[in-house]
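Field log, afternoon session.

UNIT: design team B
ACTIVITY: writing a sequence onto a fixed backbone
BACKBONE:
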């Protein structure tokens, strides 16, 4: 029997590499059929600091996924690093026809103009997403073809990254024996957003923050499309480092302590102020005793700092780009810290929810955790936005339309 087509996503995170495979089945469904996870310590703050360790983690995650019987060849890969930044660009053209009816050619010209983003030396454009059109100042136009007007404008979001960072990721994936799809490098913030944001949130204006071990990836959606993204090298790893330094314990011990007893601040202790915690000292021969309140106070200081950064991004987006942020959606492992949504709600003054990935079709239970939002989003991106193979496009009509719900308009709009 002929093999069915598959697509693979790779999330190279600071704590782990995740490989997930979807299969395009004959009955029109798109199912996640395999997952492999391997811990990774080859990155710091999103940047590659140990290529060999990263390659090994990729190979191990892929071979775990391949135990399912599926083979991995090409992959969609998430990119996250402090050097990723976004630009909001606009293009304007005069409508060319004498009858002032906007044609496809006018649209192509204005999209071309909106993609003229100033790229600093050493950087490259990772992705451009058109956000919408305006005709004679009338904004919010989805498809201006056949409308009458003099001036056609287009807005676009562009994500930029340093070439060196992208090349490091390409090299590590290549050394692991894999090829990246053309247009298969995707900002992790955009991927996670695809997996956790609802259509209503994207329409109203929303901020998504994926708080992992080494980075916090932030994206702002407004009027249905991504408009802004940033990454900061702050995540659960810094919380563990702060706790390790404060109590002279190892980082591994601190990570375990945060997982077991961590809180986003002492106000969430709920009667456990005096609870005594005992852990091993860094030398391993002495027991260290601390109260749960002391632990919460150390964690809170760093969360305040992260909250300040998120607030700055929110204000920048509001002031410079006039974006509406009606709420905040948190995902990523560290978003699960007890009290995190309440704490950020207090700091940001906007409603906050914590989300696990929502997959358009059937999401296996083993992926239903905020730590898998990026990999699930990469699959959604791959299925809905990458050019389809000849075999698959013949059958497109058969595939479940539910897949496309998350990123419907994207299919023809990206790039
Ligand atoms: N239930 C939990 N409560 C608190 N923190 C948690 C929980 N589960 C995981 N974490 C923390 O989440 C972090 C790992 O998150 P995640 O798996 O999203 O990171 P990553 O994707 O590997 O890294 P990054 O995206 O930063 O490159 C670690 O700091 C871990 O301690
Ligand atoms: Mg991550």
């Amino acid at each position: 029997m002929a093999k069915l087509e598959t697509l693979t996503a790779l999330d190279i995170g600071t704590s782990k590499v995740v490989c997930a495979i979807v299969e395009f089945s004959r009955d029109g469904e798109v199912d996640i059929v395999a997952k492999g996870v391997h811990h990774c310590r080859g990155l710091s703050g999103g940047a590659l600091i140990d290529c060999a360790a990263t390659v090994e983690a990729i190979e191990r995650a892929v071979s775990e996924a391949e135990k399912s019987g599926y083979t991995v060849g090409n992959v969609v890969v998430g990119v996250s690093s402090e050097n990723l930044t976004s630009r909001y660009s606009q293009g304007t053209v005069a409508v060319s026809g004498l009858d002032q009816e906007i044609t496809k050619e006018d649209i192509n010209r204005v999209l071309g103009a909106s993609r003229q983003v100033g790229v600093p030396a050493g950087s490259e454009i990772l992705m451009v997403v058109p956000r919408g059109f305006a005709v004679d100042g009338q904004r919010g136009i989805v498809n201006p073809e056949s409308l009458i007007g003099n001036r056609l404008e287009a807005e676009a979001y562009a994500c930029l990254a340093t070439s060196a960072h992208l090349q490091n990721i390409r090299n590590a994936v290549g050394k692991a024996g894999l090829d990246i799809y053309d247009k298969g490098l995707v900002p992790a913030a955009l991927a996670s957003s695809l997996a956790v944001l609802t259509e209503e949130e994207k329409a109203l204006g929303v901020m998504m923050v994926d708080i992992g071990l080494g980075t916090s990836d932030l994206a702002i959606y407004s009027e249905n499309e991504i408009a802004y993204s940033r990454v900061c090298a702050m995540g659960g790893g810094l919380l563990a480092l702060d706790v390790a330094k404060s109590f002279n314990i190892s980082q591994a011990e601190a990570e375990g302590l945060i997982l077991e007893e961590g809180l986003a601040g002492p106000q969430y202790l709920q009667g456990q102020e005096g609870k005594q915690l005992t852990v091993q000292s860094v030398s391993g021969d002495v027991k260290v005793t601390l109260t749960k309140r002391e632990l919460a106070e150390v964690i809170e200081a760093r969360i305040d700092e992260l909250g300040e950064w998120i607030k700055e991004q929110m204000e920048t987006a509001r002031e410079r780009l006039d974006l509406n942020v009606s709420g905040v959606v948190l995902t990523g492992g560290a978003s699960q810290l007890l009290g995190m949504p309440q704490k950020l709600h207090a700091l940001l003054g906007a409603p906050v929810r914590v989300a696990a990935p929502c997959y358009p079709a059937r999401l296996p239970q083993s992926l239903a955790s905020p730590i898998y939002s990026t990999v699930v989003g990469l699959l959604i991106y791959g299925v809905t936005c990458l050019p389809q193979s000849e075999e698959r496009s013949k059958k497109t009509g058969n595939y479940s339309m539910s897949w496309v719900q998350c990123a419907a308009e994207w299919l023809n709009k990206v790039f």
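LOG NOTE: The pocket of magnesium ion (ligand 2) is lined by residues 13, 210, 212, 332, 374 (CB under 6 Å).
NEXT ACTIVITY: expression trials, pending approval
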